[in-house]
Amino acid sequence: MTAADSPLAGVRTVLGVGGGIAAYKAAHVVRGLVASGAEVRVIPTPASLAFVGAATWEALSHHEVLTSVFEHVDEVAHVRVGQDAELVVIAPATADLLARLRLGRADDMLTATALMARCPVVVVPAMHTEMWQHPATVENVAVLRSRGVTVLEPDSGRLTGPDSGPGRLPEPDAILGAALAAVTAPRTPAGAPVRDLEGVRVLVTAGGTHEQIDPVRFIANHSSGRQGLALAQAALVRGADVTLVAANVDLPSPPGARRLDVGSAAELAEAVAAERTRADVLVMAAAVADFAPASRAAAKIKKTGEDDVPVLELVRTEDILRTSVGARRDDPATAPGVIVGFAAETGDEATAPIEHARAKARAKGADLLVFNDVSAGVFGAAANDVTVLDASGEVVRSAAGDKSVVSHAVLDEVVRRRGHVR
Q1: Would you state the pLDDT for residue 422?
Q2: Out of 8, 28, 154, 210, which could bridge 172 as a Cys pair, Cβ 3.0 to 4.6 Å?
Q3: What is the pLDDT of residue 160?
Q4: Concatenated DSSP letters for 203-258?
């Protein structure tokens, strides 16, 4: 996918920078937004300029930097920039900035812009743990979220000086993922992402399993986990409480998702079995190996001769999707109300890929099956092209484009099956 194909292409974006040490990381966010085709204007608070100067923001964004409501007064810039914005991202947001945003202050260019904006607003806090956990900050975040602002959870890790804990700015790629999810989400009349999954517990699997042959070899697939991560991020933007079960995913989690890392199909099955009793929605986006070695060699299998080739005995792995559907049938009170499966298919001489997917949908019995044709190879790409089937194999929706766009299309169907009407 090129920048021209990105959902951020041409989007008029304000990148607000608060006065914290993490301001330097915002430079990477600007780069990412610009690389995605967004038209970026950076608005730093006066305090943030002590950390990163205006020249840096102008060089990266290719736009003049405004910091005061008294600049370009003839153009009423403190009103126009917010009115024209199609996306606002504030990173980092300090405790002081969160408080001012909550109160609707407009005492500098950034807060005035945020007050004028009628578009998705993504706020990325970064501060010391004690500040983040203080009741005042907790309340400020809750109020902002209730107004439709997407406030990310900070990462845990090393902070300024010797301190460590929650309060670290998420990685730039995670911030960009949240921005994508916010821009592509369905919106309220006020321009904020619809929170139609508020409080809904969503369990998402992502990545691909590894089935060990010996200590150095394994059977695997090409899944990167990007679609599963995009689904988790989209669910978070829509208000869900997300648990992510990641199988060999070497990518940062969406801020706010609870993450469990697994390796094999058996480990994934165990994690899903333990977590699904607490989930309202299960989305099985992980690519699970259908077969695994019957046994794992304790030592690396050696070549003993030119013509000596070991024979691997394979066994079937658990069909986690079918097991989950069966568990709901046996005890609906302790199983997800909506179950979504994924099917990556190729065709053969006799059958088209979609027909394989229809048969799988009927056999699995999940509420939705998201099918994509992987004949040409789509693994690791930014875009996807899917067809959503119901349990009878009938097509209910199609979606193509960035994986964030696809994720919201899938979640739209989840919301319908939960009985919500936007």
Answers
A1: 37
A2: 28
A3: 83
A4: EEEEEB--EEEETTEEE-----SHHHHHHHHHHHHTT-EEEEEEES--SPPPTT-E
Count Cβ atoms below 10 Å from residue 224 Cβ, excluding itself: 18
Using alpha carbons, select from 275, 246, 18 the residue that is nearest to residue 124: 18
Q: How far is CA 365 from the centre of its chain?
A: 26
Gap between the Cα atoms of 99 and 101, Å rounded: 5
For 88, the 3-state DSSP assignment is strand
403 labelled ligand-binding: no
Q: Does residue 25 have a known ligand-binding role?
A: no
List active site positions.
221
Q: In 263-382, at which residue ranges do the beta strands (DSSP E only) sit?
A: 281-284, 291-293, 314-316, 338-345, 368-373
Lowest mean pLDDT among 28-37, 287-296, 374-383, 387-396: 374-383
pLDDT of residue 3 exceeding 80: no
Residue 247 CB contacts under 8 Å (≥ 6 apart), including other chains: 205, 206, 207, 208, 209, 210, 223, 225, 261, 262, 263, 267, 268, 286, 287, 288
Give the residue carrying structure tokens 């902002």: 144
* CA atoms of 248 and 262, how far apart (whole Å): 7
Where would I find the H helices in 109-171?
A: 109-116, 129-133, 135-146
Residue 302 — very low, low, confident or very high, per pLDDT cuts 50/70/90? confident
- Separation of first and last alpha carbons in the chain: 30
120-129, 174-183, 309-318: the lowest-pLDDT one: 309-318
| Contact in structure between 69 and 108 (CB atoms under 8 Å) | yes
pLDDT by residue (tens digit) across 369-394?
999 988 766 666 778 999 999 999 99
Q: Is 187 exposed, middle or buried (CB count within 10 Å of its CB: 0-12, 13-18, 19+)?
A: middle
Answer yes or no: is 342 a known binding residue. Answer: yes
Compute CA distances 420 → 190, 194, 198, 341, whole Å: 20, 12, 11, 21
Asked whether the predicted pLDDT for residue 420 surpasses 50, the reply is no
Angle, helices 77-84/109-116, rounded to nearest 10 degrees:
50
In 10 A of CB 40, how many CB atoms? 24
